[in-house]
Amino acid sequence: MYGLSKKTTQILIISPEPWTGHFVSKHHYAITLASKGYKVYFLNPPNNDLNNIKINQTKYKNLWSISAPQVAKGLRFYPKRLRNFIEKRWLQKLENKIGQKFSTIWLFENSRFYDMDFAEDRLKIYHQVDLNQNFHIKEAVSSADICFCTTDYILDKIKPYNAKAYKIHHGVSLHLKNYRLSEKQKNKFTNKKINVTYIGNLGMHYMDIKLLAKLVTNFPNIQFQFVGGYHENDPLYKTCKIVNNICWWGKVESELIPEILSFSDVVLVSYQTKYFIDQASPHKIMEYLASGKVIVSTYTDEYKDKRHLLEMVDDSKDYIKRFDKVINNLNFYNSKEKQQTRILFAKEHSYEKQLGKITALLKKHNLKGL
Question: What is the CATH number of domain 183-348?
Fold first, then answer.
């Protein structure tokens, strides 16, 4: 019998992204599970500077971050039985260190631990949130007890390998205690100008750099807030560093994002058209919607039937025109009614609600629920 009892459950979340930095779905699921009393361990990507497994308590109760070197070099080239044996021994070593067996392995990637047979009688959940995670999909999906994903495109890709595959829309965390901006950070915003914010990895190659560069140069009287990690050699920074109406924030604590958005008038989504499948449901949109602020967006497939929630253009050539229309009619686009509609949608897709949907599906398949 699979176990997910709060009193006994030790959940291992395997993530392709580290605990540090901007939080996305796997981080928020970890925090939400921990807030409900489950013991959650978040495994970071391999750190080969370490000699052994390191377990650190995060600032969240019931939630630990794990750093460890890779299990073995070239493990994907090993025969299945040997690979499973090595990963099983590694898992037992981790469990011995914790002092209890995991009831659940929740896998958010397919480049390591992708053959979940190593987890044996534990509940095995495979959860794919990005289409570009494209390494060992068949093995990961077919070896899981149940699978979840965030878009129809991903669902089409995984469904042939496991009938128990379901789409769960991206969520948003609404219960976390927000940090407050410092006075210096607040001063980046100005009441004399419209403040337009883009949040995310500013080095991501999916971004439409040309479109963003055109936007900031076409609207010199708008204050743009670019929030997220970047390097001086990144295309966006190199293209726009001489523009004087941009504030470059760098990485910020995820808890700061709600207040940053509260100071913003407009928020942006801007990806190249050729990547519309990969970026069919950016996580940032849920954070944007929770703020209530108007979103100007390039085409985003998961919202094609939810156009009342954002100002989305089908063709990027119309983006500048739509942006101009929005900033000249802010009272309309940020009306109380429109903001409430966006916020209500976000509330209906909180991580607590998404976890409830996952629990119901586990019960449906006799996989003991949360």
Answer: 3.40.50.2000
